[in-house]
Amino acid sequence: MDFLLQATLVHRVREENSNGQCSDRGSIPAMRCRVLIYAAFIVCNLPVLAQQTAQPTPPAQPPIPSTGFAGLDQYRARRIAVYFDDFGQLARYRDANAALKPPAPGENRVVFFGDSITDIWHLDEYFPGKPYLNRGIGGQTTPQMLVRFRQDVIDLHPKVVVILAGTNDISGNTGPMRLEDIEADYASLAELAEAHDVRVVFSSVLPVHNYTEKAKDFFAQRSPEKILELNRWLKSYCESHHLVYLDYFSAMVDDKGLLRKDLADDGLHPNAAGYKMMAPMAEAAIAKAVGTAKP
Q1: 242 φ/ψ sector (left φ>0, alpha ψ -120 to 50, else beta)
Q2: pTM of the model
């Protein structure tokens, strides 16, 4: 269709030009001739103009399997770049680790290692003057923690590592996980630490509650039954492997089996009152780990 239109316009221009109608600038035939020339130019160059103005279509993002929770689906979609480019988020603490000096003689360095519950814990306020390092990263699961365990724990040469992990595995932050898969990751973390003479404190998974509106999604994503089962396994594993089990759960649960409302506003992350309760428990567990001889 475009080719026929172009050919017709060019033919008309040539015909009128051959008749001398385009030479008299002031005449109506000359004006008509110029209009035809402009039209022919535009039609002939339409494909070129279209190519210049057309914007490339961005490639469609691969669909993310739905978890059944809109908020969690949106969270996972926002983290595609993390999952593909830096799954363990090694970049988060790389510079801080490089700037860190080796432990001083006699220093009982401790690394608090985990997810957002650790990440947002201001250790300097709850353990002033102590050589405690925070290596928590919000949203992480145990597979991600395994990726960065060497960089963020082993290479820092701590005396003790306090691990608090598992709640995001249950919610499926990086995909569905069976309890036995989470347990296998716990065991791998412990074995890596033991191989490098790092004492292990395993924290229980904290309870959750649904007492506030913003707590309901977190609660729905984290089965209290799975939390109980995972904690039973953790306690048993610690007993059989001479590790320290830090039982936050029993101290923070209410008579309904949920996290006490006064300890977390969103049903998951401890508030100031929650961390105030956790701090002396963590300190006692660290002291026990430092004083416990390796079998």
Answers
A1: left
A2: 0.76
